Amino acid sequence: MSAVEVPSGVTAGATGEVSGGRSGRRRFRIRRPWRLLAEASALLIAVVVAFPLYWMVLSAFKPAGEVQSTEAKPWTLSPSLDSFRRVFAQEDFGRYFLNSLLVAGSVVVLSALIAFLAATAVTRFRFRFRTTLLIMFLVAQMVPVEALTIPLFFLMRDFGQLNTLGSLILPHLAFSLPFAVWMLRGFVKAVPEALEEAAYLDGASRTRFLWQILFPLVFPGLVATSVFSFISTWNDFLFAKTFLISDVSQSTLPMALLVFFKPDENDWGGIMAASTVMTVPVLVFFVLVQRRLVSGLGGAVKD
Amino acid sequence: MGKRGSAPAGRGGGASGRGSSRRGPARSPRGRAGWTPWLYLAPALVVLAALLLYPIYQLGLISFLEYTQAQVSGGEPTTFQGFGNYAALFGDGQFWQVLGATVAFAAACVVTTLAVGCALAVLLTRVRALPRLALMLAALGAWATPAITGSTVWVFLFDPDYGPVNRLLGLGDFSWTYGRYSAFALVLLEVVWCSFPFVMVTVYAGIRAIPGEVLEAAALDGASQWKIWRSVMAPMLRPILVVVTIQSIIWDFKVFTQIYVMTGGGGIAGQNLVLNVYAYQKAFASSQYSLGSAIGVVMLLILLAVTLVYLRLMRRQGEEL
To answer: Domain limits of chain B?
Structure first.
């Protein structure tokens, strides 16, 4: 059994890239010119796909005269930090950044904990309405967040939450939970039942098993799931725009970006610099988590 | 509840054969299994009830009321309108136009995203590690880019004065956001750019999971590449294709940020409005909260229908929940 499973596990993992390529070649027997053509087009497409990001970073570093120039050059000989200075010189920029981090961080931690408990309940227990609940979690993912802005606005107003960070944290928590539960299910399922039995035989209580055995084992899955809640919260623009009407000190990053859009003349250097500042944390998070994501998904698949 | 718990798995959608799911409750003390899962579920259910279910109820309620600025500020009492708002909405030519645009735009986005994602997934299986890594990294970068920054960057790339694209294509100062279709095309490009990576990575993982012998046998039998894709790979990938298709439909139907940022809130004279932005503008720009809610309800129903199709397809494939 394990002899069969090991190779497939290796190919699925990140380390299998090379061997996968070799077997691919053997598999298809593609003639050399065709493979070279395929590789050339893959590289070309990679360049095209990466180009917008390259252009963003490049424009952020270009001096003002070159950004707003009718002769757009794909390089710059005199990189400057002026655009970044304009971004960071905004009155409350640091605060916007912290607010964004605080909102995204709270949502990530809270949704991970709540979703872990819920996922454990629906995978480790059989109870009445279990299937109904699962379908509800699925349906809840489809709800158009934007359509609920109207009732949420009144809800936040009635509870005095307008202009507070809570008005961003709570809705995002609700909207990221269903998907988190749905995705974590696989990770919780992958932990062998025998382990649970052994723990109970050794006299562990349910709570102890939950937090000291199951939680660490599911942790990679939690990290993988948190990428999605982090991104959706960090990217939020609509709630920030709608719920934070008057109190600028509670604003998040997207607002700091929109400042540079002006009716007469957009400050493209500033926009690109602010965009870069906003994109970098997400990219960093992706890179940090990527390992965990692969191993976590690998664990879930091996079940 | 305890009674149900001790006779498990009967209705769990094909779970009857799975020993593990049977063992669960049998092993645990019967009395406790009854309420423990609900204890675990409680936080999630409270949050969802307060911030998802209740707002949906409110959305439906507001759509039946007369609710404008006067009622919000408390100047006038709210009055029940029945289907009045819906009648007004369905009688408005602009609503149908926006609905048509939303469906057509979402369809175009879904088809393009799937085509690009699948084609690149197949391409990934044909190349060696280095080009594959390059393409994967570029795609991950596009995936990770926030919608709002992606939107601003693409607008800048296609800027009539300073953008490199017009210069490269020799389009002079052609404004992409001025015309209706060119504006939609620009948004479509951005949407495809940031959503094809999900399709590509998922389908690629699916192709890698197909046993090599199957493809080898097909190739030995002299099947062409297209034939292999259509008759061997596509059927084996069907479950994955269903998932990515439905997910794409749901995402692309709900596009908001891209339209809002790239076309400046719905384009000139609202020519680029989609339902989501339309509802938002109705509610928060012209204070017609009840009309905005009615549009929201229409969207909710459409997406619910898509979800039901998804559930049926999943059931047919015998996937256990």
So the answer is: 100-273
Per-residue pLDDT of chain B (321 residues; tens, 9 = 90+): 333 333 333 333 333 333 344 444 444 443 346 788 899 999 999 999 999 999 999 999 989 988 777 777 777 777 887 888 899 899 999 999 999 999 999 999 999 999 999 999 989 988 888 999 899 889 988 988 988 999 999 999 998 888 888 888 888 788 888 889 999 999 999 999 999 998 998 888 888 888 888 888 888 888 887 888 888 888 888 888 888 898 899 889 989 989 998 998 888 888 899 999 999 998 888 888 889 999 999 999 999 998 888 888 878 776 665
Question: Which chain B residues have a beta carbon less than 8 Å from that of A238?
Answer: 256-257, 260, 280
CA count, 13 A, side-chain hemisphere, A201: 6
Closest residue in B to A158 (Cα) is B72
The Cα B34–Cα B6 span in angstroms is 9
Domains of chain A: 2-85 (no CATH), 87-302 (1.10.3720.10)
- Mark yes or no for CB contact B141/A50 under 8 Å: yes
Q: Which of residues 33-62 of A touch B (CB under 8 A)?
A: 35, 38-39, 41-43, 45-47, 49-50, 52-53, 55-56, 59
Interface contact B241, partner A, CB < 8 A:
no
Q: Do B134 and A148 lie within an 8 Å CB cutoff?
A: no
Nearest chain B residue (CA) to A155: B55
Helices B289-316 and A149-158: crossing angle, nearest 10°? 120
Q: Do B193 and B154 contact (CB within 8 A), yes or no?
A: yes
Among partner residues B131, B144, B297, which is closest to A283 by beta-carbon distance? B144
* Phi-psi category of residue A163: left, alpha or beta, with phi > 0 → left and psi -120 to 50 → alpha: left
Give me A296's structure tokens.
Answer: 């976590």
Q: Does A142 touch chain B (CB under 8 A)?
A: yes
Taking the Cβ of residue A102 and every Cβ of chain B, the question of whether any pair is shorter than 8 Å is answered with: no
pTM of this structure:
0.81
Choose among A74, A131, A237: nearest Cβ to B164.
A74
Tell me the CATH number for domain B100-273. Answer: 1.10.3720.10
Distance separating alpha carbons of residues B243 and B231, to the nearest angstrom: 19
Whether ipTM tops 0.85, in short, is: no
Contacts of A87 in chain B (CB under 8 A): none
Distance CA A129, CA A140 (A): 16
Q: Which tokens go with A288? A: 């940090």
